[in-house]
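Bench notes, afternoon.
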Amino acid sequence: MRARFAVMTLATGLIVAASDAEAQRRRGLVDVTPRSDRHGFWLNLGFARGEEEYKFAGDPGWTDGPAKPAVSLRIGGTVNPNFRLGGEIVGWSNETRIDGENATEYLAGAMLIGQFYPSRKAGLFVKGGAGFSRSGVSVYGPGDTAEDGFAWSVGAGYEIRLSRTLFLTPTVDLLQHRSDGAVGEPALYERLFTVGVALTIQPGR
């Protein structure tokens, strides 16, 4: 009986040890398995072709502006693999001449944005945001004339993996600005449609 009991005790100990080893092995595999493509801090730097249009309240249609380069910077965190939240700064400018003076027309916005990914694995996303904007003209001589207002934006993009932390991201976006002029003047509406490409960096957790 003692011998049989010793054999059973030894067998039980071996089974427990093997189970612990298997559990540790599984935990080790889980620890080293790459996480979802979307997690943690992210940063996006974009360059685009921006087509600007404007009108005043009461105008029947939009006035076409020039197509010039635009830049954007997005930065934020990942709420879950289907949703990212962050901030975006967008800028567009055009060098021109007004009354014989060199001048720069510009439109800039700073917004809180959200990016929704319908699929956890695919890189397609849609974007929406709202915040503050400024539309103005800087004349080298008389000075700067600008209007602050409200801005909203919508857009879409697709993240194409280049490495574990770097993605190429084609994007399309629409930014619209609204500001009230002086007393008695109509409100200004200005919009910027951009098509471009960005680099999205996801450095870590």
